[in-house]
Amino acid sequence: MDAFSAGQEAARQAMGGLKDKTPADIKLILVFSSVVFDQNKMLSGVRSITENIPLLGCSSAGEITTAGPSKKSVVVMAIATDSVTFNLAMGGNIKEDALAAGRTLAEGLKAVSSDGKLAIMLPDGLAGNGADIVRGLQQVLGENFPIVGGAAGDDFLFKETYEYYNDQVLTGVVIGAMLGGEMKIGIGVRHGWQPIGPPRKVTKSKGAVLYELDGKPAVQVYEEYFGKKAEELKSEPLARLAITYPLGLRIAHSDEYLIRDPITVGESGELTCAAEVPEGAEINLMMGSRENAIDAARQAAERCLEEIKEQGGNQVTTAIVFNCIARSKVLGRDAQKEIDAIKKVLGESAQLVGFYTYGEQAPIGAKNCSCGRSCKSEFCNETVVILGFGE
Amino acid sequence: MVNKEKNFMSNKEQTNDQPSNFQDLAAVNQRLAVALAEQQRIAQLVIQKDLELYTLNDTLDRQVNQLKVLQLMVNEVRSLNNRDKALRLMARRLVQELQFSAVVVLLGPPPFTVGVKYSYHEIDTDELKRLPVIIKAFEKKIVYVDRLASAGPDEQALGKVLHATSFVALPLQCHQKFYGVFICALDDPYLRLSEHDREFLEIVSNAIAGTIESLDLEERQHYIDSLKTEFISIASHQLRTPLSAIKWILKMILNGDLGPLNAEQATYIDKTYKSNERMIELVNDLLDSSRIEEGRLEYTLAEVDARLLVKEILDQYRVLIDRQGVIVETNVDSGEPAMILADHDNLILALTNLIDNAIKFTPKKQTIKILVDHDRSFVRITVKDTGIGISAEDQQQLFTKFFRADNAKRMQTHGTGLGLFIANNIIRKHKGRIKVESEIGVGTTVTCWLPPAKGS
Questions:
Q1: I need a labelling partner for B382 at 20 to 30 A (CA). Which of A204, A264, B284, B446 fits?
Q2: B221-293 CATH fold
Q3: Model's pTM, two decimal places?
Q4: What does the pLDDT look like over B46-61, one tens digit per residue?
């Protein structure tokens, strides 16, 4: 199928589900697409149906709908609501300055929305330090302002990822939406990985590049555990291994770990990770399993539903799932079971949309927020984030 | 706790030349180092075992999935009789269910035709057909590349055309015959075609070659069938001319045109005449059936009254009915016309076969009912006899060419086994339907439904 028709068909189906609504009732169009499609043609296809309704989306490494995960597809969701407002804004170039890119987005979101309650961000997945973008947003919106999102993917090719902003296909930027008005939202965040072996200290790092652990080249941690030489780990085996055994950053004053995926091994044994690893942090090798991953998704869905119930709601109507690509690689064919586990908790009423990301953003860590939720958002890896809208 | 404190105290007392807390710390550090080393050792063991099992499970999982899809494919393809459809279906399953990025089947010897191409990427098949490795693959040289970086330049060229990181190109071989080349690829930078994958794809390639062969055989079978039909048609034409000549000569002799016959001569000539009639009937049936099979039976539709059609046949059969001594009850002599859109001659042929059967298999003094009725949506013609009946088993084959029920054969009535085949075909050509209900020893009811002519 050609890209234009794929976009058009997906949009037609999304809009077809809301036949009783007028275009004015539809507040937001979400689009997640594989990079096998020519991005401009695909988006033109979607726009030929949705016209000028605000649109936000990005390229992905696998797509998610109520039916389950899919690959090399386009998914479109049209959100109709009369109580929630969605205001879109665009951040700056991440490569030039990730922190500033985040700040620009937050300022933009603040300018268009007076009663913002939650920000959704979709950063480019390959342009720069994702944690800096989150920090940039927090500098403007406040450290504990809830931020949820996922970094764009490109089907595991690691070449270039794209962001969709109304009619435009962009790359290297961060885009987002500010949600305001009356709403019941639940956020579930889990990964399911457990620390194994003794913890180590990050003695040298810069951004996402981890040079030394306990004063030794970082790759040694994998050499020791897997009994393989760094040479062997330099090609793709590390990426394969690291997906199941990523690194975990201990979050201060908490039992939670922030996951970091090492992607490549450098000449002097340094590991380049999918997000930043701060110097001085305590790090562990993490171990997971398919069962734990599926269980984590179930727990995330339960947490999401609980939060909605705490706000007086009783069901989830729509859920956006930002799920790490690494999880889909770990789960393989069982990726369907993970989505099924989420569906089972959220129930028949919930419509799912989402994608497999190159990094997730969600509130995790110290429970120090007045809203009762652990509100400091972080840039995560190997994590499933469920943003549910309830009633 | 108390004990420990005591120990601390005693330690202090024993080593008063060094700051006591420093030595305690050293002991703690030492213990910690031991514990950490042990934790590290255990973690190593756990991870290595876990990794081993994980890899094994992954491999088995992939194999199970592959075999399930293969099973599904083979079952699906079995119900198809079109090669291109079968190839498309298999390619789609491989790409959609097993995440291969490209499947191409090239048919025939070089320069090849494209049997199927299914991929997320643009693949230049003209370039593909010309690649030296593909031509070699057709000559039984299997191409298997698990990592593009370490492949030779010819293989790299194939990888480029396929947009793939690992791939196979296998000859499509079945019973020493070569049908083409099967190409299957992966574009995932982290997944490679393993030896197991290669073995699986060899099975798939054999399945594809087997499918092509059996569908080719089926095509040849169709060709043989058409030759047979043509032969019957020609032979029947050639037979009918002399048989007609014999018929008229026998008729002249029987009529005494060539002088009077004695009783014995008359009996023999009469028998010869009847045998000749049966031969003519057989040849006519054969001609009709071959016309049906070749689609040469021509239909000129006009509005006709079904009652009149039946009446016309019964008039022709009056003599035979009297001779058989059966009673015919019918409603065609009165009532409203039952108009249908039909080809007069062909429908007569179809209904004659039904009525002929009823008369043939009904014993003397028994009744045959021939009824025509109709409403808005159909015209129904029912032929109900009280004959020998047809067993349930035989009923299933009634419309098959040359089929004769066991009890019919035993009755020594003549017949070709073509009547119902012809009738069924003609009724269906009229967009009608035919149904046979029968019970052994009770009788048979044949019902035909035909669409009414518009306006009636």
A1: B284
A2: Helix Hairpins (1.10.287)
A3: 0.65
A4: 888 887 887 788 788 8
